[in-house]
Each structure stands twice: as structure tokens, then as C-alpha cells.
Amino acid sequence: MDAFQYRQGTLLAEGVALTEIAQRFGTPTYVYSRRAIVDAFGEFRRAAAGRDVLVCYALKANSNLAVIDLLAREGAGFDIVSGGELQRVLAAGGDPAKVVFSGVGKTEAEMRMALQAGVRCFNVESESELARLDRVAGSMGRHAPVSLRVNPDVDPGTHPYISTGLRESKFGIAHDAALAAYRTASRLPHIEVTGIDCHIGSQITSLAPFLAALDKVLELIDALHAEGIALRHIDLGGGLGIRYDEEQPPSRGALLAAVFERIDRHARGKSCAILFEFGRSIVGNAGLLLTRVECLKRNGERRFAVVDAAMNDLMRPALYEAWHPVWPVQPREADAQHSWDIVGPVCESGDWLARERRLALAEGDLLAIGSAGAYGMAMASNYNTRPRAAEVMVDGGQAYLVRERETVESLYALERRLP
Ligand SMILES: *Cc1c(COP(=O)(O)O)cnc(C)c1O
After folding, report:
1. Whose CA is nearest to atom 3 of ligand 1?
2. pLDDT tens string 215-234
């Protein structure tokens, strides 16, 4: 994680001290490293060099326009899950022909918008959605390019809330129902079957689940071929994990190499284009949440550092009991260390960011909550009428404000008092 390093006792983002960012933009603030994002995406691109591969960035991990813009310039495609995300891609200069549209509940309006924009593919998750998409495309005199999201019933070995490829999941079409769904799709007049898709979960830290899912997909490709249904692409979804603590996920290059090796041994698979939909692994380690210690307190044996960021800013600890590193921006003498719970001011016991961390703290200190670039700001809310944080992108020695801190007035601007 060389985008964030200490120099002379102060933590920097690339070439900019976090103390300076706090001074200029206030806290809490999300801070991203341009170089870390470009490097992570670049690893995928290098691993895919010379092959027919499109790495789509899964926007929901972090949908700031600056992040989209940056990745569009690097040649990324995009995985979207709503019409709103499509609008963001278009607003940031992304190419709609490199967009895949995922999600279990696309509305007719979203389908129309995506057909109008000319997305590369709809990842369809049910026969009901197929029928709806066929109708919408027909009403526009178009054909919708489709891949079916199959549910390979593979356990990704991750948190249940981010496991999506198990039999009991709401996602995808069950493996044993996929053939029938493809038969239906191939008969619909305004559907053009182009591919197959799966996405089994997030924060996956071993190769085996990816390869098990791929094997199921390749099996289906053979079964479809036998019925005269030929596919042009395989979309293997996202889900590659990052290191928050002691995890040892496979490298981006190792995952792609293992996938290609298996596909190349498969007669029909090897003629397909390969798509991926990575989110977390592109932006997760490229961001941190900068926050200031407001107050220190003790309740019995426990020590609490109340900071100005909270569960509304970074929900992952409250939602998944996720572990994020906590780095003091200007570390103090180690002999003053105690075990601290880092908590926010929100009125919920679930409002904590980190627990039992050995730190030497004083009120007013700055802390950086690391590995917060994915599913951080994207999941932020206004609970407790807390304006959402500012976002800053650092590029070398420059810090750019890429999202202003919200104002309280803006939070109730759409509300009305009674007459
Ligand atoms: C969330 C999601 C992704 C991205 O997952 P990461 O774990 O962030 O890589 C990709 N595809 C689909 C369909 C998703 O829902």
C-alpha cells in the first residue's frame, strides 16, 4: 500500500500530507489516490494483454464521477446496477458500448434508457425479466443483447451478506433452470443471446470458488452448444478480495492467469470474449476515510475515542462487522498506547468503526481509516442529519476536491412543511 505512507512522522496520500487535506477540506473526508486506482486497474489490463477481455468496473463500489472518468480514460468498461449508474457513466464520459447492466430488478424505464444508450449487454436474472426486456426492446424496434446470470451454487467463502451465488440466493437463475431459460431467450424475437454471466460474491480471497464457478459455466456452454445456442462472451463477474487485515487474496494477475488457463483448455470457451466486473479490487485499497478525534471517554474498563466520522459515513463495520486498519496521521509515543474503540457520534450501539486498537490518542488527533475506497462513500447515508463527507482525489502533489461536503440545508431541500 505505497499510496499512503509516512514521511517524517506524518501520513501522506501520494505527495500530500493528510494534515493539509484536513486543514483545507475539513473532516470527515474520503481521500483517494489516483495512482493506486490506475495501478490496480493496470494490473488487470496487463494480465489481459493480447486477449479479447473487457474489464468492467463495478460502479457501485465507488461511483464518484472522478473515479469513473479516471477509469474510462484507462479503457475500462463499466458494470452498472441501475439507470442512475448509467447516467453517471455517461456524465463522466464512459463509453456505453462497454457497459454491462446487472441487477435483479431492472425497471422498464431503465431498460429503455439502456437500450437507447446502446449498452453492450443486459445481464438478465429471470425469465420474467427476459419477457419484459423483449417487450421493451420490441416497442423500440430494437434487439436487446443478453447474457443470463446463472447461479452456479458455489460457496465463495465470504460474509453471508456478500455471498450471491448460493442456491438460496435471490440472484441469478439456478444452474439446473438455466438451459430452459436459454431456450426461452433464444425464441424471443427481440432478444439476442450473446453471453453467459455469473457473479458469486464479494471479498473472495481464494482462487477455488472462481474456478469452480467457471467450470459450471463452461459445462453450460457445452450443453447450450449441443442445442444450437452459441455464445460470444463469458462474464465472470467480480468479487476478488483485497487485504484489509491478514487476508491473502490471489493477485489480480494470478486470478486472470488461472481463468485463462482453464478457458484455453475448453474448445468452445476459448473462442469467447471474457468480461469481468471488478469493483472492490480496483478501488478498495485506494481510499481512506480521514477523521478527527472529538472526544476521549472511559466507560468502566473500555476506552472510547469518539471521532467525527460515523456509521453513516462508513457502514461496513456496522453492517458486516468489517475490520478496517486505523492509522494515526501523526503517531504519538508508543508508551502512551491503550486499547481504544473508535466510535462515531450516531445514536446506535452499532456505530463503531474499529474495536480494541492499540493507539496513543489525544483529542484533536487525526485518524485515517484505511482500505475504505470501496463500499465506503457509496453506502453513506444522512442518518442523524449528518451531511455526507467530502471526497478528495490526490494526484502526485495535488489534492482535488471531487465532491463537496454536503450542507445541512441540502439535506432537507426536498422536504415541505404542511400548509
Ligand atoms: C457488486 C457486484 C460486482 C462487484 O463486486 P466486487 O466484489 O466489488 O468486485 C460485480 N458484479 C455484480 C453483478 C455485482 O453485484
Report:
1. 238
2. 999 999 999 999 999 999 99
* pLDDT the model gives residue 168: 76
Using the mean position of ligand 1's atoms as its centre, give its distance from the Cα of residue 135 in Å: 27
Handedness of CA 91, 96, 99, 102 (dihedral sign): positive
Q: With beta carbons less than 8 A apart as the criterion, state whether 240 and 32 touch.
A: no
pLDDT of residue 163: 76
Instruction: List the Cα angle 64/66/67 in 5-degree steps.
Output: 70
Distance separating the N- and C-terminal Cα atoms of the chain:
55
pLDDT for position 157? 83
Residue position matching grid coordinates 431498460? 111
User: Could you tell me the CA-to-CA distances from 25 to 87, 105, 311, 354 in Å, in that order?
Assistant: 27, 38, 20, 24
Active-site residues: which are they?
347
The answer to whether 353 and 304 are in contact (CB under 8 A) is no
CA angle, 393 then 282 then 382, to 5°: 60
Q: Are the beta carbons of 392 and 402 closer than 8 angstroms? A: yes
- Decide: helix, strand or coil at residue 337: coil
Q: Which three cell numbers stand for residue 69?
A: 472518468
Give the ligand 1 atom nearest the CA of 281. 9
DSSP-based helix, strand, coil % in the chain, nearest 5: 35, 25, 40
Instruction: List, chain by chain if needed, residues with CB within 6 Å of any ligand 1 atom.
Output: 58, 60-61, 79, 81, 102, 199, 202, 237-240, 277-281, 374
Angle at 357 between CA 351 and CA 358, to 5 degrees: 150
Q: Report the C-alpha gap between 16 and 4 in whole angstroms.
A: 9
pLDDT at res. 321:
95
Q: Which three cell numbers stand for residue 131?
A: 419477457
Q: So what's the pLDDT on residue 155? A: 85
Specify the pLDDT at position 166: 73
Report, as ranges of residue numbers, the positions in the chain whose pLDDT lies below 50. none
DSSP E strands in 138-213: the ranges are: 144-151, 173-174, 191-197
User: What pLDDT is recorded for position 175?
Assistant: 86
- Atom from ligand 1 closest to the CA of residue 238: 9
Lookup: cell for 162: 456478500
Q: What is the pLDDT of residue 167?
A: 74
Q: Are 86 and 308 in contact (CB under 8 A)?
A: no
Q: 293 near 338, Cβ under 8 Å?
A: no
* Residue 49 φ then ψ, to 5°: -55, 135
